[in-house]
Amino acid sequence: MASFSVVNNITSAYAQTNLQTTQMGLQKALNRLSSGYRINSAGDDAAGLAVANSYRNSTAIIAQGIRNANDGLSDLQIKDGALANISTLLDRLATLATQAASGKVGLDLDALNSEFDKVKTEIIREAAVAGLDGSGGVGFSVFISNTATPTDGIVSGTIGEVSVSKLGIDASFISEQSDAVAAVAAVANAVSSLGAVQSDVGQAQNNLQFAINLAQSQMVNTKAAESRIRDANVAEEAANMTRFNILTQSGVAALAQANQTSSAVLALLR
């Protein structure tokens, strides 16, 4: 049977417990709405937090990898521009050699040969400035993404050496007609050799661009995976906030009524 007591107000204790639970729910809903995250502490979802942090770490690695690849692409574009200019210089060498090989009376072969040497010197200088004069070629290696096999995340290759000796024109000169005829053939071979190096650069640029496209796709999908775990469902949390607000108001009213119970028991003593 029911009992009446002024020492312990059990009804009020129940109301306080329920009100405290409601307040915790309201605080959690407000916290999620204000932060935008469903997980704001490890207690919210310990397992989910670990997975979300793993995705966030992968996103950071991929983002830096994309920057690495873009830096590498910029360097390759600089080399590509230098190669295009060297190709123009080879055209000038071919023009000079062809002019000297004509055997035209009154032709100043010494002047032509002087310019020929200066153009070769400029080729040497531009190859050095672009970092293309390394013996055996220039290697490049760009780390783009973290994978189970670390080397799979690296795009690498080698760009052929560009020097007058490698192009086969270091000993070419046009001070005599016969030498000029030989120089025409040598420059033609140099153009072919330079084309192979340009092909190396072009392939490297394409590889890096493909790698960037893949990394960008991976970053978007990884961010989406993290978002599904970490981000708050705003519509759901807004509904929770409304529900807990109503429960808080009704809980306060119920607690006020429960606190009146002891006063009602005192009426028995009058």
Written description of the protein model:
The protein is mostly helical and 270 residues long. It folds into 2 domains: 10-36 and 233-269; 46-230, f41 fragment of flagellin, N-terminal domain, CATH 1.20.1330. It is built from 7 helices and 2 strands; from the N terminus they run H-H-H-E-E-H-H-H-H. It has helices at 10-35, 46-100, 109-129, 164-167, 177-230, 234-259, 261-266, and strands at 138-143, 154-159. The protein has a two-stranded antiparallel sheet. The longest helix is centred in the first third of the chain and has 55 residues, at 46-100. It starts with 9 loop residues before the first helix and ends with a helix.
Task: Considering the chains and any ligands shown, give keywords for the structure.
single chain, 270 residues, mainly alpha, f41 fragment of flagellin, N-terminal domain, 2 domains, two-stranded antiparallel sheet, 7 helices, 2 strands, rod-shaped
Q: In percent, how much strand structure appears in the residues?
A: under 5%
Whole-number tally of structural domains? 2
Task: Please outline the major beta sheet.
Answer: 2 strands, antiparallel
The CATH class assignment of the largest domain is: Mainly Alpha
Task: Report, as a whole number of angstroms, the end-to-end distance.
Answer: 23 Å
Structural class: mainly alpha
Radius of gyration based on Cα positions: 39 Å
> What is the helix tally?
7
Strand neighbour order, sheet with most strands? 1-2
Could you give the count of β-strands? 2
How would the global form be characterised? rod-shaped
Low-confidence stretches: none
